[in-house]
Write a structure and sequence with these properties.
The protein is an alpha+beta fold and 403 residues long. The chain is 27% helix and 29% strand. The chain contains 8 helices and 19 strands. The strands form 2 sheets. A 10-stranded antiparallel sheet has the order 7-6-2-1-9-10-18-19-8-15, sandwiched between helices. α1 packs across α2 (105-116) and α3 (138-153) crosses α8 (381-400). The protein is globular, with a radius of gyration of 21 Å. It starts with 19 loop residues before the first helix and ends with a helix. The model is unreliable at 1-14 (pLDDT under 50). Bound molecules: the ligand C=C(O[C@@H]1C=C(C(=O)O)C=C[C@H]1O)C(=O)O. The site of the ligand C=C(O[C@@H]1C=C(C(=O)O)C=C[C@H]1O)C(=O)O has 17 residues, from β8, β12 and β19. Residues 139-391 form the Chorismate-utilising enzyme C-terminal domain. Keywords: Isomerase.
């Protein structure tokens, strides 16, 4: 990302250049909701800040929505779906901020004055309103897995994704924007995001999984991502060997996506894969689906697919309803925004909603790490536990940098 010295002027214009730290800290200081993100393999971080007080939306209508950032939970209703409208937009490439027409002169002035205040390390991100800390223990997780295997073998469902949390103390030198920058550096192929909303909380993550995206060339994309194994240093992905269990697990996600296309009577899609991809310390199997909306007349495909897809069998299970019921009854904690979806809507780069995975929620002095694993009839509770350990490494490595 472009790092231009704060407070300098950008060549060619007389606009002031700000740093990511200045912009994010100004939002915190003014109690404003903020979302920062970087698309996979891109260098630019974009930040959206809103002056809106009511951020709750029922569901995003992707086609008619203004530019903003959506942050939606696993179960809509248990937590609100949030929309951070792009009242203020910052680009790390130019260092400039831009105000939308909805912003009043007084709001602009207040924000600019706050931006120019000297940086202090003594700022705090937005915290979740509730004091209760989500937790799932090793024993709780493993007994839920054992019960899931029995339910699958009795024919009541094919797959269920079970997850758990880990509470880690924040190292005393932890710095949120520095952590975001580390995530950018460490995971160039991930969708990196930092969302901080009053009452809702603060989440940092590096997602490997597109849920729905529509780029400026009007290409709709989604993926079937599943199957996990550690990526070995220096080992080419072409050498990866997958067991029947992972192949079937990923095949279920693929079938689920195809069933969604079928429900919409859409036949003109392209399917590539499954291929092995690397996400941080892990490898997965991924099939890419795309639809060229310039050729297929389906203006609401994004919104319709979002409605049908979420939660996919990559984070919930198959069939969806019994898997979701099993999760709510046996997982033992509230997933909140983990395995929900998030991303920019109608930005100049398009709409890019990702599944909120490989993420952590930041409390005042601790972080909650979240990870899950797909359970099938062939699962083993100990191996699934190990898989969640591996997935948590994505964020654990970031925290370790501050120790
Ligand atoms: C559930 C997670 O990941 C999902 C589950 C996977 C699996 O079961 O193999 C792989 C990738 C993701 O679709 C997670 O990261 O927490």
């Amino acid at each position: 990302m472009a790092d231009i010295a704060p407070g300098t002027t950008n060549s060619g214009t007389d606009s002031i250049v700000y740093s990511l730290e200045q912009v994010v800290h100004a939002a915190f200081a003014l109690g404003l909701p903020v979302a920062a993100w970087r698309l996979p393999l891109a260098t630019e971080t974009t930040v959206c800040i809103t002056f809106d007080k009511d951020l709750k939306i029922s569901k995003p209508a992707l086609e008619s929505s203004p530019y903003g950032f959506v942050f939606s939970p696993f179960v809509v209703g248990e937590q609100p779906s949030i929309f951070v409208k792009a009242d203020i937009v910052y680009s790390s490439e130019t260092g400039h901020i831009r105000f939308s027409k909805a912003v009043t002169e007084a709001q602009k002035q207040e924000f600019i004055i706050t931006l120019k205040q000297p940086q202090t390390t003594n700022y705090s991100w937005h915290l979740h309103a509730s004091e209760t800390i989500n937790q799932q223990t090793e024993t709780g997780f493993k007994s839920a897995v054992t019960e899931a295997i029995a339910t699958i073998n009795s024919g009541h469902m094919e797959k269920v994704v079970l997850s758990r949390t880990a509470l880690k103390p924040l190292p005393s030198s932890f710095n949120l924007v520095a952590a975001y920058r580390l995530v950018l550096q460490s995971y160039p192929g991930a969708f990196v995001s930092l969302v901080s909303v009053p009452e809702v909380g603060t989440w940092l993550g590096a997602s490997p999984e597109i849920l729905v995206s529509i780029d400026p060339q009007k290409i709709f994309r989604t993926v079937a991502l599943a199957g996990t194994q550690p990526a070995l240093d220096g080992e080419p992905v072409g050498n990866a060997i997958w067991r029947q269990k992972e192949i079937e697990e990923q095949g279920m996600v693929e079938r689920y996506i195809l069933s969604c296309f079928k429900k919409l009577r859409l036949r003109e899609y392209t399917e590539v894969g499954p291929r092995t991809i690397v996400a941080g310390n892990l490898m997965h199997l991924r099939t890419d689906f795309s639809v060229d909306l310039k050729e297929v007349d389906f203006p609401t495909l994004g919104t319709d697919m979002l409605e049908l897809l979420h939660p996919t069998s990559a984070v919930c299970g198959l069939p969806k309803e019994p898997a979701l019921t099993f999760i709510l009854e046996h997982e033992g904690y509230n997933r909140s925004y983990y395995s929900g979806y998030l991303g920019p809507v109608n930005s100049p780069q398009g709409t890019h909603l990702y599944v909120n995975l490989r993420c952590m929620q930041l409390l005042k002095n601790e972080a909650i790490l979240y990870a899950g694993a797909g359970i099938t009839g062939e699962s083993d509770a100990e191996k699934e536990w190990q898989e969640t350990q591996h997935k948590m490494q994505t964020m654990q490595r970031i925290l370790a940098n501050f120790e």
